[in-house]
Amino acid sequence: MTESTGGTVDPDGPLAFEDPEYREAVVDLLGAIAYGEISAFERLAEDARLAPTLEDKVAIVTMATAEFAHVAPLRERLESLGADPFAAMAPFRSAIDLFHAHTAPSDWFEGLIKAYVGDGMANDFYREIAAYLDAETRDLVVATLEDGGHSRFVVDRVRAAIVADHRLGGRLALWGRRLMGEALTQAQRVAAERDALSALLAGGVDRPGLDLAAIGRMFARITERHAERMAELGLDS
Amino acid sequence: MTESTGGTVDPDGPLAFEDPEYREAVVDLLGAIAYGEISAFERLAEDARLAPTLEDKVAIVTMATAEFAHVAPLRERLESLGADPFAAMAPFRSAIDLFHAHTAPSDWFEGLIKAYVGDGMANDFYREIAAYLDAETRDLVVATLEDGGHSRFVVDRVRAAIVADHRLGGRLALWGRRLMGEALTQAQRVAAERDALSALLAGGVDRPGLDLAAIGRMFARITERHAERMAELGLDS
Known about the structure:
The structure is a homodimer. By secondary structure, chain A is an all-alpha fold. Chain A has ten helices and no strands.
């Protein structure tokens, strides 16, 4: 409720929302995350049809419904900010749909890797961005990142399949690189189109931000964690 | 824990499970419900692609995930009865898959009606059968029947569409009859194949059951409630 020293707005207080650009950036971010979760749900539910057994199908659908469960609190938060949740999602539909159209899995294992690695990349990005948010929004964003350990089964399934078929490992490693490349392409597209969201990262008069070097380091961290996840699956990155 | 008068087994006590035929019937029932929920989820998630707006899509997916949320407690209960949940589901996959294959919606409204009316019929049947179960199984079955009011939106959407297009009402009324017919066909098939499950309804030496006239009255009640649901949607049955 009070301004911090130096005349900057307290990023943890409601005052943050008195900056219309900050509010716009948060509406953008929550809209992007919400549509990302809906879209992730849809693709996982579709990929579930490729499951070799009913048990595998139930496991992937459990991951899908866990993603979808995040949508309701994001909608509520958008509404409490006076935004129409579906209008807030609209600007991100094209980039997210394109990401999925360009990375449609051709089999069950590509679907599993996409679920694990794609979700991981998105979560890393949101975790990075969460540092620039007020406390309430940050808590909400961080809560959407918890997967409840459902994706453990992906690691088990992929590792077992690679042991059984070494050529599969090479193909899936390439697939992981393609997912990363496509995600960066679409993220850059969003950054170029959504000024408020980019400004959130770049900082503003009242808020600390990232210079170009810091943004570079952020992407280096995200790429590094992608490599760690690929290694966890037993794949080169 | 005690036998009731007349030498019959207390249907509310663990002793009910000392009758192997009763246990087999409960495993069948929970397996059928679990696969029904998984399958309902799959079809709703697929029908969601026909949604005219993102908001409608989110509404139908919310119904789908509510169905799927029932699967985990059903699995746990099957495991606590010493049954393999997926083996318990297996005998019902063909009938339930056939029901869906024969009632694939050709548009968004047929999908909505199917979600509402199909789910309603299944729930009525489970509610009828619940009367013949021990208390713990009954509570679990009844809990799977709660839809949390999500389907209210189906009634609103269908009524509004019929007002706008009267011919749609005639087509959807026919569709409702077809759903009911196909559900009865598959239910009879299951009853013919699964002796323990049929015996649960018919009763046994130790348990009260239904004679043919009572089974007829049960189906009359289910048909009547189907007609009520169709009327609620603004459709003739």
